[in-house]
């Protein structure tokens, strides 16, 4: 927690400080050195261009949160200024930073979406540096792109790659949000259409899947596996049309999705809609990753909105950390801070008991994720 | 109110505790015994299937609110655990529970939407058990379904049934939200189209109206009556497409709706859009029913959002209670709690005077509803 | 600030009380006397008809805020009742009221959208009465309507009028939101299409531009100038379809908008979406005008939501005052009150340092606007 003194801390505050997290959606941390420009650009998610000259990645909720929370991990005072933060950070290698921040996060397991290429930690390195368990989440569009390059029949190749990777992986993920969004038909396409679309796509080079038939095919193959399917929803970079990622556009898809857990990631600014879906469907879950980091001091307001219609057994934690190792840690720090702020108020107002609040913390921190990914406890 | 002591209570708090409510949209309470599964399922609104094995209706904002507020009506401590709550509840018949909870709500009048079939209290029983007045709200789609089964011309039958029922009823209601949503043409259809659509529908059996022409016909007949027309907006079960119930999709309809009061029910997550419409049209009102119950500890945040653009003479109260008698009571308890939280903060911050806050409580609690439904005061 | 005592005031509170504002979007104040009905109607933005008999413009967040904040400027106690407020106000001429309220606002510069006709102050009078600097913002649809009435080629006339007015003007504004909304193609139309559309429009009389081709032409001419382009977004009167003014519908337009600053005005209820766009595009800014006035006691919640994803160098202040001189003042009073409430909580919770909060106040109050409109400081 961020409070100065521990003596007068409530049982809820103590519990939140100590609770171990399953971070159910992360990517890798940087391994190679970079300049301050790279770092500041990594504090802006939505922009796909470098920040303007007049701007600074530090002048945002995320930037302020880095200076508040991450500074302490590096032995700096809170709210340290950007220049001091950058200088201190520069005294460490990215690997050292990763070790520091990953271990400070209080995360017992990482679920690692390996679908982003780049010079970042792989699964084994993440495991080593953090000293925690880690398991893979397989990106469906990457499987499709591998299948497009594989010999033989597309469907057979897709299935073979997916099944091979799912021997150790614990779930799948789709970035349909970035490949045209959620509007339109998301039913399972007939085999003949799939074959035809695959042929057309292979003829075009078979890279960066945007074909709706093949995107739909991938989703339904994932449903069939029964393992949790994560969907990018809402907030991300401007390559996706944010309004086409409103999760209510998934209603028809969800109505036919059976029992496979579907986890709606990020969700901002549609977290209230996502919470509704988590109440409406036994197999739908909501997550707070990415949003909590970028909202900083406003993360408590977001977490409160996520606690509106979503049943408490349907909410999971993630950081969605990628790039600067700060983000893997900061997600946890801001979640702990925010959930304490929100549940602490519910308790202070008499709306909830402290015991209930502690139990809900456990559900979101690890119990719900452990149940849907079938982990043993702890 | 939820505060422990009454001595130091503000005039605002005392007023809110005691103010009598017009609950302008409810359904019936259960009359027949049921098991715990029925009870827990009734705590989830959006899901149309039974809750999953791993889930519990108690683990939601509504479930926590039942354990906090309703427990006290049954002589249990606040935050009593689900098992104890269930056992205590089981010591009463549903009729006894209804008598207890209805009388505890502090409601002087119930406006009863009789359009849901099921083994629940009728209007007379609601009146008897609560000891309060009650009047009917007529569901237009039910009138249509009755007209489809009646002999003779559909339009004549619809009008005759509607006018007969409106002799004692105080308003109408439409669930257009569940029958295709608000998108598209909502103008009054020409007589020939109505006749043709009615014939087609009767030929198909004349049940569960979904024909847009006949839905539009019903709405415009209701407008003609001049009595308030309630519209289901937003939050409900997943049979409706939530994004097709955004009340902004009603703009063209509202522009041609004349002076008939139109009450937007529930509204979540579109309460800010609904508040805008209440400012934009002299005849549009917003309501908080259903949402307040399901939001529990987050109901104050919802009520605060409802107090953004909506003029204070355009906001009304309801619980939308249906099934467990707890919900008729809990709506009132959470509204009292929430409006105190919100207006108390406006007063504490100096933004509002306490006298103004008390007057706004009266407007929302009963004055606005008394005006539009033409009740004498009290 | 609204707090009673100054002695214990924080440095942040003192800074906010004293900070001078650039009000980057206003209109004129009334000059001619009017009755109470005119005044009350001016407290409702969304309704295009006179308020109903049963209603009062005072019974709204804006009405309560007038009685709280503006009463003090007129020497009345806070929360003075509507009748007393009206009587006191009636003792002054509109010119006297303008002098009082404009000077009380603490605004160093006004950016004046001259596109609304009516018996209100012009630029010179606003400057005189306020004792502050003022510069024009040119409404593109007005330029188009002037060009339609001008002799010769439409494009040449449009360009000549625009360039002549932009010699002294500091930016442009579009009310595309009111002329069909943001949906659909917003690319630059080919010259032949523009010529044809202009001819058709001139043949029809050339008033109230709604032609999409010519609206698009105007936007792209404005982009070419490089001076800031203000766009009406969200909240306004019911002549616009609110859901068609969701700023996410501008995504494709923004993707091709280059470096010209684009300022999203008002934004309610899409302020979170607007904040996302301010993060996603180096040239996009968000503004709080109109909304802050109409939200009154709920303005802090709005300002907090505006501080979610929007980078702090991308947020600007305006009142959008028009008509009653109260509104030019009240925007500033509510912004000071609200930003203090929000940033004060960030500081109290330890999320932000006070020094950072003070710096962000300066950015929003004037630094960001000074940068994009190229003013010298102060």
From TrEMBL, chains A, B, C:
Top-level taxonomic group: Bacteria
InterPro entries: Amidohydro-rel, Metal_Hydrolase
Keywords: Hydrolase
Domain Amidohydrolase-related: start-end pairs: 216-375
A Pfam family hit: Amidohydro_2
GO molecular function per UniProt: hydrolase activity
Protein name: Amidohydrolase
Species, as recorded: Mycobacterium angelicum
